[in-house]
Write a sequence for this structure.
């Protein structure tokens, strides 16, 4: 498993804490920045990480900003990405099980790092259930193909 990690300035400190957690768990990751609390534009960093997931270079992505909303909006514009903004462990697990989410987004200004890391753990442990959910996820892909005219990398 390899995680694509990214944030803007508003999520930088949380991204660093997620990176520490991943190292402690022995989980490989690639950090797409940013590298300080200096103001930057979240689309630049979220896009790079989301594209790495869509290309299959990373298994899953974790993106942080102030709310987790901006980075989710960016990631969900990339064909093949299903990004879920989750601030509780149930949603994080269900985003994997039912929606086959491949990107988790978090808001540093919304949750403390203790809860955020439990959300990360729930997301990483979650497994896509398939079955009755598969045709629904396929309908998401069909919408992408309708508007983007692109296929989806197998995730
Ligand atoms: C930056 O101030 C903030 O707007 C950004 O981190 C994020 O919350 C946007 O969705």
């Amino acid at each position: 498993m390899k995680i694509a990690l990214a944030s803007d300035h508003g999520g930088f400190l949380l991204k660093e804490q997620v990176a520490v957690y991943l190292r402690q768990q022995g989980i490989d990751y690639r950090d797409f920045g940013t590298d300080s609390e200096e103001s930057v534009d979240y689309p630049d960093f979220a896009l790079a990480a989301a594209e790495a997931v869509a290309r299959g270079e990373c298994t899953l992505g974790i993106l942080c900003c102030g709310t987790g909303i901006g980075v989710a909006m960016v990631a969900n514009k990339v064909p093949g990405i299903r990004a879920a903004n989750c601030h509780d462990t149930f949603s994080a697990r269900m985003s994997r099980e039912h929606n086959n989410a491949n990107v988790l987004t978090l808001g540093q200004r919304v949750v403390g790092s203790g809860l955020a890391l439990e959300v990360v753990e729930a997301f990483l442990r979650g497994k896509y259930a398939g079955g009755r959910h598969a045709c629904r996820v396929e309908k998401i892909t069909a919408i992408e193909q309708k508007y983007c005219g692109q296929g989806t990398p197998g995730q």
